[in-house]
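Recap from last week: sequence in, structure out.
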Amino acid sequence: MDFGKIIAPISWNTLPPEFLTSILALLIVLILAFVIRIKLKNYDPLKKPHGFLNVVETVVHFADNSVKNLMGPAFDGFGGYIVCVGAYIFLGFFIGMIGIPNVFQPQGETFLEPLPNPFTNLAFPLSLALLTFILTHYTSIRFKKWAYFERYIEPIPVFLPINLVTMWSNVLSLTLRLFGNALAGYCVITLIYVGLSTAIPPAGSYWGMFLDPFIAPIAHLYFDIFDGAIQLVVFTMLTMINIAQEYVSPQELLDAKKQKKEVKRRKLAKKEQKRLEKLNKKAI
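Predicted structure tokens:
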């Protein structure tokens, strides 16, 4: 059997263009992080920030306040992750809008074609959702310790298979929400371009493309800029809410243990009372 015919070898020129857009967005985030770091070395905290640092301070302040309001003081410092994820999502939509030509794959099928929105490929929304999934369960294990595993046998152990399936519902929800919005925007904009190209007879003359500068920017403004901003807000907020729900304070854990012990004590007391009642009936 020739496995070369079944599994095609992966090379640089056969990588999906969405992967290149994703790498480009990540590089921009890293470059911005280095620039901010360098600028902070010469930053005087006694002076009022201006220009680029003023924008950065506003974004960081908003992210920290959101984390504090939605997650609580136990997640102090988590705003940095939220800013990075939000910047990555917005840059993915933005790069898909401006249409940077694919000059990175000279022998690929998409050479010189505009780089697409990375979230139109299901793998990239899924990767972000899996990060949220991992952080959610890591947070639960970190604070609940062995009590984390009780979720899989609640309310009774028979529900173990159902709980194992439903634990992936948030991953599916986050993935399809981001993927669906990105793909829907791409399809609508594509239909606009195709429709305008044949809007003026004779069909196929492309005279209708002269209408693109008047109509297409409005579509891009909504489906790329506005929709990208909405998706980053929704995704980051759901990430914060899902992770914050797993937090349990030490006092709450102690109270839960005391409550379980009390429930067990009451059950044993009831059993003992029933046993004594049976003995009394036999004695009579």
